[in-house]
Design goal:
With 117 residues, the protein is an all-beta fold. It contains no helices and 11 strands. Helix content is 0%, strand content 52%.
């Protein structure tokens, strides 16, 4: 069955970096758009970044992360990455991987990112 498993979260100081991974199984990742969302305490879930299928390859970033985050895919590993640089305290949230596969939406379990001095 379709599964998305995130990893790579942690606690870093402001200005630090993390790379999140979203490992997919049950489907071929390069045929589908994959997104990253985040949810901070007391706030609604928001879109962070998205990468389209390999045939297009276009990317999207929320204004709040543009220039600091980079989304990429490794089709051989069936994995999508989110490289996060120059992290700020407001980036603190649980980060979720998302995919829409064969008409159904799937979410990972989330990985916690904390940015604090």
């Amino acid at each position: 069955q379709v599964q998305l498993v995130e990893s790579g979260g942690g606690l870093v100081q402001p200005g630090g970096s993390l790379r999140l991974s979203c490992a997919a199984s049950g489907f071929t990742l390069d045929y589908y758009a994959i997104g990253w969302f985040r949810q901070a305490p007391g706030k609604e879930r928001e879109g962070v970044s998205c990468i389209s299928s390999s045939g297009d390859g276009s990317t999207y970033y929320a204004n709040s992360v543009k220039g600091r985050f980079t989304i990429s895919r490794d089709n051989a590993k069936n994995t999508v990455y989110l490289q996060m640089n120059n992290l700020k305290p407001e980036d603190t949230a649980v980060y979720y991987c998302w995919a829409r596969v064969r008409g159904h939406e799937f979410w990972g379990q989330g990985t916690q990112v904390g940015v604090s001095s």
